Write the structure tokens for this entry.
Amino acid sequence: MTSSSLTSSAAATETADSAIGDETVYKREPQPWHGAFAKPAKEFPPTDLEVLAGRIPEGLQGTFYQNGTGRLERGGQPVGHWFDGDGAILRVQLSAAGAKATYRYVQTTGYKAESKADRFLFGNYGMRSPGPLWKHMLGLFNGTTIKNSANTSVLALEDKLLALWEAGNPHSLDLETLETIGMESLGWLKPTQPFSAHPLRDPISGEIYSIGVNSLCELSIYRCDASGGLIKQQAIALKNIPLVHSFVIAGPYLVFLVSPVKVNPLPLLLNQLAYADAVKWDPNQGTRIIVVARESLEIVSDSYADPWFQWHYGNGCTEADGSIRLDYARFDDFTHINEVLREVPSGRMKTQAYGRLWQLRLDPKTGRVLSHECVVERDCEFPQVPDSKVGQPWEQTYVLMHREGVKTGEDWFGAVGRFDYKTQQLTQADLGTGIYGSEPLHVADGQTAENASEGWLLMVVYNSVDSRSELWIFEAKGLGEPVCRLALPGVIPIGFHGTWQSS
Ligand SMILES: [Fe+2]
């Protein structure tokens, strides 16, 4: 980024600074989007929401849940990375009669202890353990070194809501009150065993698939029934790669694109580096492509391709010729996007990273790449598809995007897009000046199939003009202006991932 690409108001406050890579970059004062993160969010009890514009669609009846970091500081000390914040859940119940919202922190052991002490007591993804080395070493054995922040996603089961965090057990919450019940083993998880923040539910069988990468860099794959009970599990050695954030179902397969991010364990053990600093981009061996049979969890193929990094997939399926097709948000490397995410709590972004939607076709038997192309050139993340299309052929992928001409690091996401594979067209809606978005969650139309529309996209936005968070509802097909805007009672930090449970 050059100084000429800064806005005139920002340019007045810039100072030269060094950054990763060879780019010349500049520190800036926190930008308007940072108002969403600047103060710890306050919980609110069930509250009727004011309709700011439009109306709640008739076919949209159910409950929206979203997880994210409710607070990014403690006792005046900022966290080290966006991923370090304490999890807090937003629940919005929608019906034609109105909307009611609740917001509560997940009462993790770490959250309660740090609330009492009013200072950080644990290490985290971007933070070293604050105590003496002996305490850190002891914590490695009893699982107390790193705080389970329960901050990344949610999974709604029939009788409980799970607050998910990638490196440990889920937390179980009451679906209605959001009261924290406690750590959740699902009847089979060992204490501290990871259960990822990106489980996938097969829309046909109802089975849930999840993963976990342990401290020995073993990828565990879990096949569960609709209640989370374990049917089968399998482990794959990742050869010093500690990070697999998500995966995709593609017909009878699961596909893992394992980007070459390697960990240096010694500084972690000795508490010399936080996790975010001990993991390094190592592109030499490329991205490993592991195709697994969904029923047996046995490896079908194991191959390598060019190096890239991704957090999130849109979807996957098998085609008529037996090939796998999937899409995902691709970054050139891990280093830059990790820095961007580290800079979120300060609001002073100086790094750029460009996520773009790519489509990959594979031969599942060999892992050979048949085609690999960028389908959405615009900077985007959080690809989404309807729940009913998970693992099945699909035509539309929805993404959170930057406004025209804006790149990651310059501003927060301010647009939503719909890419149609059939027409190859990108439809977009600009959220407007000073409005910042989050994951666009697709919700199916609850009306009968013959009358059903393409459904809706639900998005929590931060309105920096009115210093307020809002829930926006878009028609998934046409996008355009939101069909309904609801005012939330306070400012909710922009979150990570959500889910929907129909009434
Ligand atoms: Fe994620």
Q: What stands out?
A: The two ends are 48 Å apart (CA to CA). The helical segments are 8-11, 109-117, 133-142, 265-269, 275-278, 334-343. DSSP finds six helices and 37 strands in the chain. The first strand starts at residue 15 and ends at 17.
